[in-house]
Specification:
The chain has about 230 residues and is an alpha/beta fold. The protein is built from 6 helices and 15 strands. The protein is globular and about 50 Å long. The protein binds nickel (II) ion and manganese (II) ion (MN).
């Protein structure tokens, strides 16, 4: 399995020549090291409806004939943009053939703000995903604040790598993310959802040092950097 970080919350997971991408936000990220048209995937997973998670979902889905996988409300919204969708919900597991994706809860919001019509579309419940393939378990926490059931998720899943937001302001910040890391009990923690915008600037290396002080392994992935396991 090869996992590549493309900035913000964008994670590409490759398993035996097949791939899925979670929360593609590339064209809106000046620091991105990849082009939207270079993304080759079998599925596009979305944790929630905010633009910094769904921005490039439709073009990637269309170009690859790859379904968008999300909560049912966001799936309906995406289907109106002409993409194939698979709606699922929290607690459910989708078998993608090359990987399994379980939808977990996240403590956040998920509306789509239509400024022009002064309307807010309900975007369904925000989520995270637990991806299982080749006997490995990867957690993408989505956008979330700290919540106690992270401990339950950590107790029930043997997580190899957990991708946790640390940007603060819209999600948990580094201090709460250290607590989340303790509860998820992942073998490796990788920070996401930071430094894309001024309001979520954080020191990834300082976060990794804070993890190490608690005996937890962390690693900063640069944009475009991959990890093999
Ligand atoms: Ni969000
Ligand atoms: Mn976000």
């Amino acid at each position: 399995m090869k996992i590549t970080y493309h900035g913000q919350s964008t994670i590409l997971i490759e398993v035996n020549g097949k791939s899925l991408i979670i929360d593609p936000f590339i064209s809106g990220n000046a620091a991105a090291k990849v082009k939207v048209e270079d993304i080759k995937v079998e599925a596009v997973l979305l944790t929630h409806a905010h633009a910094d998670h769904i921005l490039d979902a439709a073009p990637i889905s269309k170009a690859n004939h790859a379904p968008v996988v999300s909560n049912p409300e966001l799936a309906a919204y995406m289907s109106w943009q002409g993409v194939e969708t698979i709606g699922m919900n929290i607690g459910g597991t989708l078998d993608l053939d090359f990987a399994k994706a379980k939808m977990t809860h996240a403590f956040h919001s998920s509306g789509i703000i239509d400024e022009e019509n002064k309307n807010i579309l309900y975007g369904g419940m925000p989520s995270g995903f637990i991806i299982e393939a080749e006997g490995k378990t990867i957690l993408h926490a989505g956008d979330t604040g700290l919540f106690g059931d992270m401990k339950m998720i950590g107790d029930r899943h043997n997580i190899d790598i957990a991708f946790l937001p640390i940007g603060d302001h819209f999600t948990m910040g580094p201090e709460d993310a250290v607590q989340a890391a303790e509860w998820y009990k992942a073998k490796l923690i990788i920070p996401i959802h930071y430094n894309t915008f001024p309001v979520i600037e954080q020191d990834g290396d300082a976060f990794v040092r804070a993890l190490e002080e608690r005996g937890i392994k962390g690693r900063v992935l640069e944009l475009g950097e991959s990890i093999e396991l």
